[in-house]
Amino acid sequence: MGQKVNPFGFRLGYSQHHRSDWFASSQDYSKKLQEDLLVRKFLTREFPDTESGISAVYTRRKGQLLSLEIHTARPRVLLGSNQETQDPTNRVSGLVQVRRDLEKLFPQKIPLSLRLVEETQPDSNVALLAASLAHQLEKRVAFRRALKQTIKRAQTARGVLGVKVQISGRLNGAEIARSEWVREGRVPLHTLRAEVDYATHTARTLYGCLGIKVWLYKESQGLYQKQKTGMGQQRALDESNVSVTQADELDQARVTNPEDFNIPVLLPRPTLPKRVDATVSEETSA
């Protein structure tokens, strides 16, 4: 049997970030974990994915303050029903109402802050693609047609290098459940450097539940790429400084500004010896 691992957890620390960023002692860990689950369940129940377009919720704690960062493709849904009036006071009132509803979930009053982040490219977000596919299947759209539309949307998005979509269950009302998948482009699941996003969703149809899995391979913009880029820039800068600056100028700079001369000097790479032919001329032997 093939053993599979979640692509998101497999790449934590390399190209993915933790959704919950906080530290707690062993006595408070379970309590804070339940608070995070309450917040996520509330947002999922009150603002479904198909209506609000919520793709991710990030929680951070600093002392007693709980900060929520909600990524959504439709921020006006969370801002309230008065967004058409273009009144800033009405927009803020929508967030205030959401914050008050969240504070009622906790037995003790906890300082809470909300921040909305708009997803400018929903077609390149794996969670929104899975939610959209589930919505089409629930509307009784043929699964092959829905698969092609999802693949086409992902291909037109900027920065997407590959996509894979899989649907499992009683497809088209068949008596025997099966799985079908479509892939376009590259999806390197075994490469840790590759930034592969992964999301699952459930479509509730008349014939039962259909499981949806979406993999999305995008251009690397994560932790590994930033570290690699930073190291490469620093190495190029050091090499350029050594190649341009002559030895006399380095000595003069060390004498004039001894405090500023803290940049390590890289020694030139040793050159390989030239190849010597085995045949020796008569003049050389003589």
Oligomer: single chain
| Count of domain modules | 3
CATH homologous superfamily of the largest domain, by name?
K homology (KH) domain
Query: What portion of residues is helical?
Result: 25-40%
Number of helices: 10
- The CATH topology assignment of the largest domain is GMP Synthetase, Chain A, domain 3
Q: Report how far the terminal alpha carbons are from each other.
A: 76 Å
Look at the structure and give the mean pLDDT: 78
Per CATH, the architecture of the largest domain is 2-Layer Sandwich
How many beta-strand runs? Answer: 8
**Beta-strand content:** 15-25%
Under CATH at level 1, the class of the largest domain stands as Alpha Beta
Supply the helix-strand structural class: alpha/beta
Major beta sheet, strand line-up: 1-2-3-4
Low-confidence stretches: 81-85, 239-251, 258-267, 276-286
Radius of gyration: 28 Å
Summarize the biggest pleated sheet. Answer: 4 strands, mixed
Order of helices and strands: HEHHEEHHEHHEEEEHHH
General shape: globular
Report on this structure.
The protein has 286 residues and is α/β, with parallel strands linked by helices. 38% of the residues lie in helices and 23% in strands. The chain has three domains: 114 residues, 2-Layer Sandwich (GMP Synthetase, Chain A, domain 3); 96 residues, Ribosomal protein S3 C-terminal domain (2-Layer Sandwich); 34 residues. The protein is built from ten helices and eight strands. The strands form two sheets. It has a four-stranded mixed beta sheet. It has a four-stranded antiparallel beta sheet with strand order 6-5-8-7, with helices on one face. InterPro entries: KH_dom-like_a/b (IPR015946), KH_sf_prok-type (IPR009019), Ribosomal_S3_C_sf (IPR036419), Ribosomal_uS3 (IPR057258), Ribosomal_uS3_bac-typ (IPR005704), Ribosomal_uS3_C (IPR001351), Ribosomal_uS3_CS (IPR018280).
